Amino acid sequence: MSEQAFIRTAARFFRKLQPRVRVAVCELPLALVVAAVAVAAPAVWPALVQNWLFLTGVLLHGLLFLSCFLVPWERLAPNATMAIPILDLVALAFLRTGAYDVLPGLGIIALFPVIWLSASNLLPRASLILSFVGPLFIAFPPFLVHFPNPNSSDIFAVAISPIAMLVVAVAIRLASSSGRIQQARVRQRDQALRQLLAASRDREKLLETILDTIDVGIVAVDSSGENLLTNSQQKEFLRLSEGNLLFGQDRHTPLSDEKSPLQRAINGETFSDYLVWLGAETGQRAISTAASSMRNDADGAFGGAVIVFRDVTDVVEALAAKDELVANVSHEFGSPLTSILGNLDLALRGSQEVPPGLRSRLEVAERNAERLRALMDDLLSSAAAVDSIHLRRTDVAGLVENSLVSAHAQADVANVGLVADVPSPLWAEADPLRLGQALDNLVSNAIKYSPGGGRVMVRAARNNGWIRLEVQDTGIGMTAEETAKIFTRFFRTGAARQAAIPGVGLGLSITKSIVERHGGHITCSSKPGQGSTFTLLLPALQATESAD
Question: Where are the beta strands (DSSP E) in 150-301?
């Protein structure tokens, strides 16, 4: 135990004592010394037993010690106890004067009442005056007796002893003042800490209330994956999940542990709009997840993550209903539109000659009918991309090669170079038809929006259980605002409209749906005049599965 800790412990113990016991403890050292002198006097200094001054001093000390227990100090003023050390000085004057011939140095025990007075709550000026006057009062009687020829002991007692006691009193008073100042600072810091703790608890309660009020599930984990926080909505999601069952976009394929939102966040990934299905059979819920990593301020190391789970079942079902309606309407339009195009073709290319004016109008009608059929095909493809995904073991490298081969004619016409950096094989659990359609869309767009002499680069690699596929062009690029909307249906950039590049704005929306149905996600980065890069992340097959 340190010295300061010992002092604090002793102070706490002293404050717990009853007032009478505290006064007796303060008087006890002097009482023990006087008692020891009184007991030893008959054997060592027999003459003292006959000295009435000495006996008076001993008697007064005894009465003062008894008064410590008999007087009801708790009923008196706090400084009433100072009467004891003051009367001690009087009793010591009798004791020292009576024992001066045999014990001239007995006045040194005046140090005990001086310490008591200096360490008390008495006014500093009063305690210092008493600390000087008391020892002087004790030393003065023998000095007067021997005057005008005092000995060295008399001179020391009168000239030096009061000053020495005053110095001791000043030192004790300064130490006490410093101690009280430190105690006040400690109390202030303790009060500040208590206030901070109370405020922290209030903020914690407020945060818990907010987290339990919102309809979004929140989980916080540390760097080792230990759970730090789970709000009530997330607990409800876990209850509905029936044993933490998570499924991919097709609602049937269970997600492996490394593909779960929680494990991806623990691995340090940051993602958003990662859709999973929670629970089994009829009670399944569509959950959109997002994760953000926490980094240590010191070294930037991974310190944990916060994962958000949002129920988007109603939104997903509404989109599915809309897609079904669009598909049905498009299908119903198909037959009459085919009939229109067939008759226009017969009229334009039949055996009968068509007047030039009428031919021009028929060709306009045919062009617009073809455009309408292309739009309907895109709408049907969009619905099919959502509904019909059939996963099987697929070599992504082969799909990239086929896509580039198919795009060569378009690239040659546009004078755009095609470059691939794809290791082979690159196995994934995918629908080759739909994933090939997504690749065709990306490569075709990259060629379409690249000026003559440009280049389209396709890269792919396996990384931490994922296949990362990039399609990069050197085309016209997009603004940040346009990039944020690029996967929205029917959205087209201002530059595309200005350059009259054909299209209706459904291709990238279809591509995004296909990728998400595979349990992956797609992002875009672009700058005006510097081209665009589309990045796909798709779940890769495990090494053991690839080898089968």
Answer: 217-222, 227-230, 246-247, 271-278, 285-295
CB burial string 517-536: b at 16+ within 10 A, e below: bbbbbbebbbeeeebbbbeb
**CA-CA distance, 122 to 176, in Å (whole number)?**
12
DSSP secondary-structure letter at 529? T
CA distances 151 to 101, 143, 356, 489, Å, are 12, 8, 152, 116
Mean pLDDT of 253-273: 83
Residues 6+ apart with CB under 8 A from 392: 429, 430, 431, 432
Q: Read off the pLDDT band of 542 (50, 70, 90).
A: low
- Tell me how far apart the alpha carbons of residues 451 and 420 are, in angstroms, rounded to a whole number: 19
- Does this model's pTM top 0.70? My answer is no
Higher confidence at residue 338 or residue 193?
193
Cα dihedral 489→493→496→497 (10° resolution)? 90
Pairing status of strand 417-421 against strand 455-463:
parallel
**What pLDDT is attached to residue 544?**
47
Structure letter (DSSP) for residue 351: S
**Phi, psi for 419 (deg, rounded to 5):** -130, 140
Q: Give the C-alpha separation, 3 to 373, whole Å.
A: 93
Distance CA(276)–CA(246), nearest Å, equals: 7
Measured between its terminal Cα atoms, the distance across the chain in Å is: 68
CB distance 470 to 533 below 8 Å: yes
Alpha carbon distance 87, 357 (integer Å): 136
Q: What are phi and psi of 120, to 5 degrees?
A: -85, 180
Rounded Cα–Cα distance for residues 306 and 270 (Å): 10
Quick: pLDDT tens for 147-205: 777 777 777 777 788 888 888 888 888 877 777 788 788 888 888 899 999 888 888 88
Contact assessment for residue 389 and residue 514, using Cβ atoms and an 8 Å cutoff = yes
Interatomic CA distance for residues 246 and 280, integer angstroms: 8
Contact at 8 Å (CB) between 310 and 288? Answer: yes
Distance CA 107, CA 473 (A): 103
Question: Please, what is the angle between helix 111-119 and helix 83-99, to 10°?
Answer: 170
- Axis crossing angle, helix 52-70 with helix 19-44, rounded to the nearest 10: 160
Q: What are phi and psi of 100, to 5 degrees?
A: -60, -40
Is the distance from CB of 525 to CB of 535 less than 8 angstroms?
Answer: yes
Under a CB-based contact definition with an 8 Å cutoff, are residues 541 and 531 in contact? no
Residue 431 and residue 253: Cα distance in Å, rounded? 13
Distance, in Å, from the CA atom of 233 to the CA atom of 88, rounded to the nearest integer, reads: 75
Return the ∠ at Cα 14 (arms to 9 and 17), rounded to 5°.
135
Per-residue pLDDT, averaged over 12-20, amounts to 74
